[in-house]
Amino acid sequence: MIRLPAVIFLFFLSGNQWVSAQETKMEQYEQELVQISEKVDAARYGDSDSLTYYSDLFSHKLYSLLSRVYGTMKYPFNLLKEEHVCDISTSKDGLFRIYSWDTQTGGTMHFFKTIYQYKVNGEVRTKMCELNEGDPGCFYSEIFTLKAKKKTYYLGIANGIYSTKDVSQSIQAFELTNTGVNDTIQLMKTPDGMKNSLDLSYDFFSVVDRPERPVAVIRYDEKKKIISISLINEKGEIVPGYQYYVFNGTGFEPKLTETKGKSKGTQSN
User: How many angstroms separate the CA atoms of 189 and 186, rounded?
Assistant: First the structure.
């Protein structure tokens, strides 16, 4: 039997104790965020000043936690997700994560805030996203990874809620650089030129019976590198068929439209 020297044994013991202490501390931080979120919910139909205060407090606490506490990028935040407090999407390589949540300050139109957390050159960084005036924001439900030669891109599925009926879904391109997250990189070819995202606004009630949430009206095949955008009619209702965008090595270009099992010529949204 091999016996470890006492110093090494104590090192492993103290290391495990440190990890356990960190996990306990993170659980406490997470619980605090849930409690603040509960106060946001309680204030939604009451004091508007309290609603603004607690909503801003949640944003501040989450950003502060992600910015200053080591290891948050790998922490699962299961409680935040289970309690539907915050949507957290992480890339498969673990280098890019998006936190997004409903501020609860809207009505049938929902307002969201978003934080990027990413790792470049071995350093974890955090960025609170700024929205243009009048932009209610969105929540991100998934991140796909796209490898292209020596480049790595990320494709985020974003969801907007503008009323009980009017919603949107987008697929947006990201790239990590030494200066931060490039969320304006143009990879999508459209009739109006290269764009950062492909967007679909539609009538939610046309797909309300589908079980998944959010409803996947935009899909991405990581192996084939193909984006599929659902088709809509003149009323904005989802109808059978897809518009496909295929990655050509430098960007996504529209190929064909498939409607009810039949293929048509190239058509772009």
Answer: 8
